[in-house]
Structures are given as structure tokens and as C-alpha cells.
């Protein structure tokens, strides 16, 4: 049986809650791309929404998607430039976590432990 690092466990729990409570198409597309190990998630989600659904992702939608992926929320404009750096770091950590989670979910021992 695998034990997750507390941070990874918290991330995993957060994403499961988001999936259970219902997510926007853009959020689900982003998670799908992250689990597939893709880069440029925001750009790819924008393209998929346009190509498959005929929707445009606004600047506010992009910010909301970044906030959703990093589990962060809006801050005052004075702190915004520092927050962007933090959000980017959080996104990198999220991507690393989702890659780890994907690998764990593909592991037969892990699957047996949770059946």
C-alpha cells in the first residue's frame, strides 16, 4: 500500500471534492490534460473550448482556471504580481502531483489496495 505525502494527500482530496461537486468543462479539460502530462494547459484548454465547444475563454476565465488549478483565490492588485509567481509555482507542484497520482493509479498494487 502507498502512503501519500500530506501535501499530495491534501491535493488529491481537493481534486476529488471538486470532481464530486461538479466542475466546469474548462476545469475538467485542464485536469484531463494534466493527467495526460501535457504542457501549456491554459493555452490547450482555450483551444479545446474553441474547437470542440465553440466557446471563448475570457481573461477572467483564464484567471479563474489558474485559481482553480492552484486552489488559490483573488488577491488585491498590490499583491497581484507576487501572487502570479506563487500561482505558477503552485501549478508546477500540481502538475507534478497529478503525474505522481497518475503513476500510482496505474500501479497494480495500488489498484488492488483500493478495490
Structure description:
The structure is a single chain. The protein is an all-alpha fold and 115 residues long. Helices cover 74% and strands 0% of the residues. The model has no long low-confidence stretch (mean pLDDT 75).
Topology at a glance:
Elements (H helix, E strand, L loop, with lengths): L5 H16 L3 H11 L5 H13 L5 H12 L9 H27 L1 H6 L2
Cα shape = globular
What ranges have pLDDT less than 50 throughout 5 or more consecutive residues? none
What is the string of helix and strand elements? HHHHHH
Q: How many helices?
A: 6
Summarize the biggest pleated sheet. Answer: none
Cα distance spanning the termini: 12 Å
The count of DSSP E runs of length 2 or more, i.e. the number of strands, is: 0
Category from helices, strands and their pairing: mainly alpha
The overall average pLDDT, rounded, is 75
The residue fraction in helices comes out at over 70%
Proportion of residues in β-strands:
under 5%
Give the C-alpha Rg: 15 Å
Descriptive tags:
single chain; 115 residues; mainly alpha; 74% helix; 0% strand; globular
Summarize the structure.
With 115 residues, the protein is an all-alpha fold. The chain contains 6 helices and no strands.
Amino acid at each position: 500500500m502507498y502512503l501519500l505525502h500530506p501535501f499530495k494527500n491534501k491535493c488529491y482530496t481537493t481534486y476529488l471534492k471538486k470532481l464530486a461537486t461538479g466542475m466546469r468543462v474548462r476545469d475538467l479539460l485542464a485536469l484531463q490534460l494534466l493527467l495526460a502530462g501535457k504542457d501549456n494547459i491554459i493555452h490547450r484548454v482555450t483551444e479545446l473550448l474553441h474547437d470542440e465547444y465553440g466557446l471563448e475563454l475570457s481573461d477572467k476565465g483564464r484567471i479563474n482556471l489558474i485559481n482553480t488549478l492552484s486552489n488559490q483565490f483573488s488577491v488585491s492588485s498590490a499583491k497581484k504580481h507576487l501572487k502570479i509567481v506563487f500561482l505558477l509555482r503552485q501549478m508546477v507542484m500540481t502538475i507534478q502531483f497529478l503525474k505522481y497520482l497518475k503513476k500510482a493509479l496505474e500501479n497494480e498494487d495500488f489498484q488492488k489496495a483500493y478495490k
